[in-house]
Amino acid sequence: MAQEEGVSLSENEAASLAWLIPAAPAVAATALRAARLAGGGAEATRLAVEGLARAVNGGRLPVPEAPAAAFDFAQVNADADLEALTEHLARPGAPRAVSLLLSGPPGSGKSAFVRELAHRVGLPLLQKRASDLLDKFVGGTEQAIAAAFAEVREEGAFLVFDEADSLLFDRAEAVRSWEVTQVNEMLTWMEAHPLPFACTTNLPERLDAASLRRFLVKLRFDWLRPDQARHAFAAHFGCEAPAELEALATLTPADFALVRRRAALAGAESDAAALLGLLRRECEGRAGGRQPIGFGAAG
Description:
This protein has helices at 2-5, 11-20, 25-37, 42-56, 82-90, 110-121, 130-133, 140-155, 177-192, 209-214, 226-237, 253-266, 272-283, and strands at residues 77-78, 99-103, 125-129, 158-162, 197-201, 217-222. It has 299 residues and is α/β, with parallel strands linked by helices.
């Protein structure tokens, strides 16, 4: 886009801006056009993107995202073959109006998979958190939901709602009228949306029953299996996993990425015992363990 607008950006500068300020393609295009008119480069683009992103996000900057590592299907424990599903949805002529519900514990790979899927189907990703949409004024949340769906239609993007249980909670438990209309607004747009979109949640039991029927594909993510944990240990740390790793029943892919950064700070990247201790600390206080998962794909 920078090349098309005649703005000089290196690949590193463009990548840094993309991760620092996640925004819709139209925001980036307008900012680059403004930077070109101002005769600027990366810094002028950053200022323009920040200003536009604030304007369309209620005065706040979108939450920055960490640069994505290469997605490894072998490090995600789901109740469906994610690689086969991705190939099916990315094939030429595949249906576009596909809705996905991804549930499971934090860090289990839900958002990472959605990013990979959007990349493979060739669509930019527009991520909305519940905090981006919930409004203290009556009707404000419904307007924000409608605006999000309208934005991705205009941009041809893949929409993902994080913390979807805050937007699609069970209406049987609603005590205020706006709580019902908020869910109704989501359901109305879900029915008619012509592009792929996904919802992620850590609390699927809180979702409205009618919303569950709207999703064509339901995927349940879980803690890593022992073989996956060993694979993740070798992939992240470059050494064989100690036997004691198998006792850690609540590991997620995010734990290994976090421990790798912590180990780098402590100079313990090659100390298997120290790495195991750091992973054990990540598991402390987590309830449960590996549970049978059967929230399978449909449609």
